[in-house]
Structure formats: C-alpha cells, structure tokens
Amino acid sequence: MPITADLTIRETATLSGVPRAMIEKAVEGRVLRPIAGPARFRGAPMRYLPLRAVAYFHALKAAGLTDLPLRHKRSIWKRMTRLEPMKLRTIEFTPGAMLDLERLAADSLRDAERYRKARDLYIATDADILGGTPVIAGTRITVHAVLGRLRDGDTVDDLMHDYPDVPREAFEAAELYARAHPLRGRPSGKPWRKPA
C-alpha cells in the first residue's frame, strides 16, 4: 500500500502533541523515513511524513511508551504501514505486547486528516500578496495574524464575526499552520491587534 507524504515534521509534532525532537529522533533512528519534497509554500525543500505518523506518535505518548527500544518502535511503525490508510486497530508489536491504536489515536488521525484537507483548501501563498506569506486563500489575512489574535484573547467566533465570508475551518487550519510554522526573526509589533 503506497504511503503518501502529507505533513511536515513540524505539523506532525503539533498535531500529535509530542516535541519535534522526538520525531527527529525517530527519523534519525530510522523508525520513520520522511520523503523529501518541495516546500508547499515557500522556502527550502521540506521533509514530509504520512498522516498515520500523527497516530503513531500520539499513541506512543498516550500509552506512555515513548521510551520503548528502537526495535519495538520500528515494529509498531512497520505494522501501522500495513494497515489501510485511515484504519487503526490493535496490533501486537512484540510477543504478548499489544497496542490499541484505535482507542489511543483514532481521534488524532481524524484531526490530522481534517487539518490536511483544510490546509490544502484554505492556506495559500502568492508572491504578489504580502511577499508570499501564508494567508487564508482569497484574503490578505496571514496565518500568523490569526494565531496572534487567538493568543491575544480573541476566539474563532470573533474572527468569524470580523470576516463573515471566511469559514471556521480556514481559521482553525491557519491557527494550527502558524503554530507549526512559527515566524522567524525578530517580531515587529502585533499587526493583528485592532486599533484602539
């Protein structure tokens, strides 16, 4: 069954709730093998992982198994890659040791799929719009402005009130994308703040 590369390592970490270092360590230990590809928006080539990587890391964290030996982590991942793309079940990763992926990680896998679809539909870049900064498609609302407003106390409902033509999923995808891909460099004020 072919594996598709859907999420950056940063997106995988954000969606699974584990530190990026844990994912980098799994890549370094050859538990998972990312697929190199062009940046979806701008920048240097990126490394991508399949959606099921979110379920893998989320399940390890939820089960308290983040310190398993590499051979067991590889065994879990190998068995997961044999499952249908959006189906999880209980697997035996070593004799007598079971991991109930459905119970531990089905929600995280569905959330990752929902995010991927919304990101691909609503997040865009255009060199002619704010120099290629990721924005909500069809607008000049940057993903980082959405995150800034939410961190400053606004809610998604507030954003929807201010921008009634933008669907909730677009704001949710923008917020998660911005958390996964923070701005680099020195901050310059808070452009998301409403004027007094």
Percentage of β-strand residues: 5-15%
Question: In one word, what is the shape?
Answer: elongated
Structural class: mainly alpha
CATH topology-level name of the largest domain: Multidrug-efflux Transporter Regulator, Chain: A, Domain 2
Q: How many beta strands in the DSSP annotation?
A: 7
Side-by-side strand order of the widest sheet: 1-3-2
Helix percent band: 40-55%
| Ends apart, CA distance between termini | 56 Å
Would you identify the regions where 5 or more consecutive residues have pLDDT less than 50? Answer: none
Summed up, the domain count is: 2
Describe what you observe in this structure:
This protein is 47% helix and 11% strand. It is mainly alpha-helical and 196 residues long. It has 2 domains: 7-106, Multidrug-efflux Transporter Regulator, Chain: A, Domain 2; 125-180, Winged helix-like DNA-binding domain superfamily/Winged helix DNA-binding domain (Arc Repressor Mutant, subunit A, Orthogonal Bundle), CATH 1.10.10.10. Strands 1-3-2 form a 3-stranded antiparallel beta sheet. A two-stranded antiparallel ribbon has the order 4-5. α3 crosses α5 (101-122) and α5 (101-122) packs across α8. The longest helix is centred in the middle third of the chain and has 22 residues, at 101-122. The protein starts with 6 loop residues before the first strand and ends in a 16-residue tail after the last helix.
